[in-house]
Amino acid sequence: LQGGYFPEHVKAMTSLRWLKLNRTGLCYLPEELAALQKLEHLSVSHNSLTTLHGELSGLPCLRAIVARANSLKNSGVPDDIFQLDDLSVLDLSYNQLTECPRELENAKNMLVLNLGHNSIDTIPNQLFINLTDLLYLDLSDNKLESLPPQMRRLVHLQTLILNNNPLLHAQLRQLPAMTALQTLHLRNTQRTQSNLPTSLEGLVNLADVDLSCNDLSRVPECLYTLGSLRRLNLSSNQITELSLCIDQWTQLETLNLSRNQLTSLPSAICKLTKLKKMYLNSNKLDFDGIPSGIGKLTNLEEFMAANNNLELIPESLCRCSKLRKLVLNKNRLVTLPEAIHFLTDVEILDVRENPNLVMPPKPADRSSEWYNIDFSLQNQLRLAGASPATVAAAAAGTSTKDPLARKMRLRRRKDSAQDDQAKQVLKGMSDVAQEKNKKIEESGEAKAPDLKTRRWDQGLEKPQLDYSEFFSEDVGQLPGLCVWQIENFVPTLVDEAFHGKFYEADCYIVLKTFLDENGSLNWEIYYWIGQEATLDKKACSAIHAVNLRNYLGAECRSIREEMGDESEEFLQVFDNDISYIEGGTASGFFTVEDTQYVTRLYRVYGKKNVKLEPVALKGTSLDPRFVFLLDHGLELLVWRGSQATLSSTTKARLFAEKINKNERKGKAEITLLTQGQETPEFWEVLGGQPEEIRPCVPDDFQPHKPKLYKVGLGLGYLELPQINYKLSVEHKKRLKADLMPEMRLLQSLLDTKSVYILDCWSDVFIWIGRKSSRLVRAAALKLSQELCTMLHRPKHAMVTRNLEGTECQV
User: Fold this and answer.
1) How many Å apart are CA 494 and CA 513, to the nearest integer?
2) Where is the Disease resistance R13L4/SHOC-2-like LRR domain (predicted)?
């Protein structure tokens, strides 16, 4: 939004509910906001706003105002916004406020209040008289020396953050009254043993406590009564010992005791079986300070004890099979247990700055699951440049005992005991069989037992097929109705709002789940065939109806229903309320048509990873310092400028080969052209040869940062929230450690049941998940067109649709 430009299209969106204008260079609120009378959420963070005066008080539906990281002062916060009846979220953090906004106490429906990172020195006593419904309160990084006693009225408060305030004389007697509290952060608030409440026993929901950077000489007694504690941060204090009462924290998952004066850990810490992360950096721990039973922490994933006095670590620590991060740098380590090689999930092993450390030898059997690193003393000496005599002496002194062989012998002993039991069972079975045969010989031929003939349906065997691609795990597990529509040979789940509405050219599968007279789940399965449905849809509906029956293990039949001739049982499923709609989805059969390709010109850049920037399709877009790729359907032309590097040319050609293989089925012809040797056909595609090819790309060129949006359907409106792909929580799978610093766009962000829009400025891509609904797909097409025309983009910008699994290379 540089230059004061604000899209006129936004003003026309009178039904807009949610608007995010973060990092857009705003200096004032646009006048166009006055037309958005249904706006509920407004975010203007990370801008240059000095005032919020304007049209906000005239937006009757406004619920949330997020204006963090601006230049707001108290005079820039209007009083009338607190008269809005629905205002429930206010974020004014990272600004220049010196006191609480006036009239704030009138916002009686406030649920979330964030005033952190300002210069507020006092909180008015009347503030919390009306704001009793608060759920989240952040007053961190201010200049508060005391808190009003009226805070005890916040009985619904779940999160309280008071970090970095000089609260030395505040006794915090209000805390025991906040019975719904779940998160309490008191980092750097001058806490001591004397200015904390004596008991927090009533806070049964408190799960996250941060008391780091204070003056605590021991763990406060009030913390031992918190049985629901999951995260506890006591780092940067003066704690010298831990009490045996820590075994009360049975739900604890993260414990941070770094930068204290601990010399040992109590044995009771081994009872915290749910502990996943333990941080003990910068203490005074030695080998005897870590209990030998630490191996009982079977869920431990991170153990960090850097900058201590450790010479060894207990071997039992290597029994924590889920350990992923082990940090032991800046200690006095001499060696590590041999079992360190069996920690197959370890991603980070940090043993730097341990000058006397000698890694244990690797087991002889080099399984692919173990580290592919030779830790033997001979190899380390050889790498360090030692003489052959020294290496030979080290090899001679190495013990010949094989710890792996010892473990295998112990395992064989255990297995031999099981073998003895198996032999006894077999002997007993053979004795029974001999006795039976003896009786048969004495009494003559044995009478064969009467066998009942099985019904025809009991003789059928269910095929061993994987139905998880078509039906989810929870299908048919709860009483209710599910409807699928056949689309491209595959059943697609229909939204509940469209149950009973059938397209005449489509086929559907209907599943009714109910409880029978015995209280067990039972099912009725129908497949409905439209009058104008094509052959592929008819066949697929019947096939997948049988697949659904096999998937559920149902004994009922799949019943065929035809349009206009439905049975009474089928009509009762929809309460006799069904309707027909003209039209339907396209047939799944391929139609033979010539593929139409869009001719485009791309500039290739990037040193490590190849990136393509679309440019205008004309000769003046060429730059002698770069390589360009001209995509002309079945002709892919790679143009190399006179100053372009050879590596860029090679990467561009490899990219063209990828396009040819994956998108053109190997039918495209790839041609390499150098500057000055172009063909007439090349210039004809670009609209003619320019008089001179000059550098046209600025030296400080920075590509636009791509933005990823997720398309959603709200209650009567469309949603288009932006995904922050730098947060690991947004990813569907756990990321590897080497991807964490950059946090670039990854496929783990995409969900097959959703539709996404990727805005790359000169290109807008729609990614459609295979299990997404038809309504969301249609909404994505409409939103992408609006998004493309809303901002000033190059004329060559276009919208591209990509189906999951068939994405284009660009």
Assistant:
1) 16
2) 223-304
The pLDDT value recorded for residue 739 is: 45
Confidence of residue 458 (pLDDT cuts 50, 70, 90): low
* 720 & 764 share domain: yes
The CA distance from 805 to 283, in Å, is: 52
What is residue 327's DSSP assignment? E
| b/e per residue 55-79 (b: at least 16 CB within 10 A) | ebbebeebbbbbbbbbebeeebbbe
Overall residue count recorded for the chain in this entry: 810
Q: Which residue, of 634, 650, 685, is where some domain finishes?
A: 685
Q: Are residues 799 and 714 part of one domain?
A: yes
Query: Average of pLDDT values for 244-260?
Result: 93
Domain harbouring 753, CATH code: 3.40.20.10
Following CA atoms 583, 587, 588, 593 in sequence, which dihedral angle do they give, to the nearest 10 degrees?
-130
The neighbouring-strand residues paired with 628 are 603, 639
> CA 478 to CA 476: how far, in whole Å?
6
Same domain, 499 and 574: yes
711 and 798 co-located in one domain = yes
Looking at the DSSP bridge assignments, the partners of residue 487 are 490
What is the C-alpha separation between 159 and 179, in angstroms, rounded?
A: 11
Q: How many Cα atoms sit within 13 Å of 122 on the Cβ side?
A: 4
Residue with tokens 């004809």: 684
Paired with 256 in beta bridges are 233, 279
Q: Is 80 domain-assigned? A: no
Residue 513 near residue 480 (C-beta atoms within 8 A): yes
Pair (541, 621) in one structural domain: no
Task: Note the pLDDT tens digit of each residue in 200-239.
Answer: 888 999 999 999 999 999 999 999 989 899 999 999 999 9
Measured distance CA(621)–CA(641) in Å, rounded: 12
One domain, residues 658 and 738? no
- Tokens in use for 167? 């609260």
Asked whether residue 619 falls in the same domain as residue 653, the answer is yes
Minimal CA–CA distance to 484: which of 537, 521, 535? 537
DSSP letter string, 719-738: E-PBP-TTSGGGSSSPPPGG
Burial class (CB in 10 A: 0-12, 13-18, 19+), 210: buried
d(CA 366, CA 373): 10
**Environment class of 449 (CB within 10 Å of its CB; exposed 0-12, middle 13-18, buried 19+):** exposed
Least confident of 16-25, 432-441, 726-735, 797-806: 726-735
Q: Are 773 and 806 in contact (CB under 8 A)?
A: no
Number of independent structural domains in the chain: 3
pTM metric for this prediction? 0.64
Side by side, the strands of the sheet bearing 480-487 are: 490-493, 480-487, 507-515, 521-529, 558-562
What six digits make up the tokens of 807?
């994405």
DSSP state of 654: H
The closest alpha carbon to 47, from 83, 80, 76, 8, belongs to 76
Neighbouring CB atoms inside 10 A of 201's CB total 13
653 in a structural domain: yes
Question: How many whole angstroms separate alpha carbon 438 and alpha carbon 446?
Answer: 11
Measured distance between the N- and C-terminal CA atoms of the chain, rounded to whole angstroms: 27
Q: Report residue 117 CA to chain centroid gap.
A: 28
d(CA 745, CA 731): 10
**Domain contains 298:** no
Among left, alpha and beta (phi > 0; psi -120 to 50; other), residue 540 is alpha
Is residue 514 a part of any domain in this protein? Answer: yes
Domain extent at residue 518: 480-581
> Do 623 and 715 have their domain in common?
no
- Report DSSP letters for 18-32, one per residue: EEE-TTS--SS--GG
